[in-house]
Amino acid sequence: MLYLFDMKSMIKENENLKIREDVIKIKENDLQDTIQSIDKRKECIYKKHIGEEKPLPSDSTLKSSSNGNNNPLKPEETQKDIEGYNKYKKFDCSYYSLDQLKNIEKKISFSLSVPNSVVKRFKVVKKLIIYSCYEYEFLDVAFERALSTFELALRERYYEMKKTDSEKITLCKLIDWADSKGLFEESKDKIHLLRKFRNSFVGHVKRYSLLGFMTLGPIFLIINTINGLYENVDLKKLRKQEIQKMNMRLENILENGAIFQSENIKKIIFKGKQISFNNKNVPYKYHFAFYPIFAPIETNKGMNLPNPIIISANSYDFKNDILTINDIDGEEVKITRILKKENQVKYDNWRKDLELNESLKDINEKIDIFINYNIYMQ
């Protein structure tokens, strides 16, 4: 069979295909712009729903708030007011460069007491974090490795303290045993959450999932917990008591929302907690996390979850339901109840909208488990 090719026709057809490809690309770009425009409109509608407000003057102080003259707050602002004040950062985990990933990897370290078998397994975790710059899914593989190594670390510590290496024991019982010995800094429930992750990602995989950068929080929680297995139990007990006492007082203040006030920042917050207390060296160091209210709406990128404001401090004072924190540079942050009716209405409206959103009902669990990464990034 003989085929005859018309070269001119082929060239013409290729040119037509090229034109069609360009048109498709233009339409794709238009579609992306439309989606972003819709997302912006959603946020604008939400802001209008809870009220338009004037921006705060730069010299606003808590003193004016206590006199009933505090300005209304913007419930949802851009990140500029946080990022411009670099001690109190919001963290954007949507993308990391290779240099940033290398800096994250350098923060992974273990005490000299941690067995070499555990440390060696984490060498792979560190490499996977760096290589995730080229293959995003490597972060999930790193998380799986960290979870299985966590179980190894617990088992090694159990055998060391029991002076045996032959007894069979489940991870669930290992966690209960370690908690009874005061080896955990975190609550037993939070450590059992790691066990559930292990079952889902390593032991009994039922479906495909991709967490990506969200795995960094639990990975650093695992590192901290492994190091804690070999720390002084009495100092750890004092830390836990201090944190529990502080967080009970913060819960009381935050029952109906609160105000976060620093030199440059003033926000309505819905959650706040002391997340760590380092009493191993003098001066002591404290870490606090505070969550501003946010627009609880769906965008094309998923749920608009809040990022915490993280504060590192050497001291604090709690008087008359006012928490005053002195950060590591000597600047002052105050947390108070909401005094102005206008701001209380904004908080109440936000709370109602939040309760209507099914995907945010367990928001406290979500933000607690992923907060450890932010601590280590300080």
Structure in words:
The protein is an alpha+beta fold and 378 residues long. It contains 13 helices and eight strands. It has helices at residues 7-50, 62-66, 80-83, 98-106, 116-131, 138-162, 171-180, 188-203, 216-228, 233-253, 341-355, 363-369, 372-376; strands at residues 258-261, 266-278, 285-292, 298-299, 302-303, 309-319, 322-327, 332-337. A hairpin with a 2-residue loop joins β4 and β5. The longest helix has 44 residues, at 7-50. It is globular and about 65 Å long. 25% of the residues are buried.
Strand content: 5-15%
State the distance separating the first and last CA atoms.
73 Å
The radius of gyration over CA amounts to 25 Å
User: What general form does the structure show?
Assistant: globular
The number of helical segments is 13
Give me the strand/helix succession: HHHHHHHHHHEEEEEEEEHHH
**SS-based structural class?**
alpha+beta
Q: Name the average pLDDT.
A: 75
Main sheet strand line-up: 1-2-3-6-7-8
Low-confidence regions? 1-14, 45-94
Helix content range: 40-55%
Q: Tell me about the biggest sheet?
A: 6 strands, antiparallel, barrel
Strand element count: 8
Keywords summarizing the entry:
378 residues, alpha+beta, six-stranded antiparallel barrel, two-stranded antiparallel ribbon, 13 helices, 8 strands, 50% helix, globular, disordered N terminus
Topology readout:
Blueprint: H1 7-50, H2 62-66, H3 80-83, H4 98-106, H5 116-131, H6 138-162, H7 171-180, H8 188-203, H9 216-228, H10 233-253, E1 258-261, E2 266-278, E3 285-292, E4 298-299, E5 302-303, E6 309-319, E7 322-327, E8 332-337, H11 341-355, H12 363-369, H13 372-376
Antiparallel strand pairs: 1-2, 1-8, 2-3, 3-6, 4-5, 6-7, 7-8
Helix pairs in contact: 4-5, 5-6, 6-7, 6-8, 6-9, 7-8
